[in-house]
Design goal:
Blueprint lengths: L7 E5 L2 E5 L6 E2 L4 E10 L2 E7 L8 E2 L2 E3 L6 H13 L1 E14 L7 E13 L7 E8 L10 H12 L6
Parallel strand pairs: 4-9
Antiparallel strand pairs: 1-2, 2-3, 4-5, 4-7, 5-6, 5-10, 8-9
The protein binds zinc ion (ZN).
Length: 162
């Protein structure tokens, strides 16, 4: 909609796309990048209980969408600070996962490991509660499928499946 003309559907690269017949603009639709951090205290993992939809009341890793001027790494550090109050340093890359069960939009979730450098546990605006949970007694209500995937793999010590 750059020139104001209405978009129409056309097949492009084998998929229906919304295209502007006047200026040629293509409305590409792609997953948005997001980042999450695994912070452990021994066998306990840092989780946030969501205070907002979707999945309000459910627990998940500190995570969020990447802003336009951020790297995935800075997103991970920022989201952890905003949601939990903890300052972390990233220590490794755990996985990159596609999220398909977020009703807002599909995302590409980069999951890092991080270690605490400071700060104090304090739930941010989007969180009702933040706490470390034993990997062996995780909350039943996890926010997203990928929270379960990452936490179950941490719990069992199973390697990545690829
Ligand atoms: Zn146009």
């Amino acid at each position: 909609m750059a020139c104001g003309h209405a978009l129409e559907e056309r097949e492009l690269d084998g998929r229906p796309r919304r295209v502007c017949p006047a200026c040629g603009l293509v409305h590409w639709e792609n997953p948005v990048p997001a980042a999450a951090v695994v912070v452990l205290r021994g066998r306990e993992v840092l989780l946030c209980r969501r205070a907002v939809p979707p999945r309000e009341g459910c627990w998940g890793l500190p995570a969020g969408y990447q802003e336009i001027d951020e790297s995935a790494e800075s997103t991970a550090v920022r989201e952890t600070r905003e949601e939990t109050g903890l300052i972390v340093r990233l220590t490794g890359l755990i996985d990159v996962l596609s999220t398909t069960d977020d009703p807002r939009k599909p995302s590409l979730l980069v999951v890092y490991s991080g270690e605490e450098m400071g700060g104090e546990l304090c739930p941010g605006d989007d969180c009702a509660e933040v706490a470390f949970h034993s990997l062996d007694e995780l909350p039943q209500e996890l926010a997203f499928h990928n929270d379960r995937v990452v936490l179950e793999r941490l719990r069992s010590g199973a390697p990545r499946p690829w």
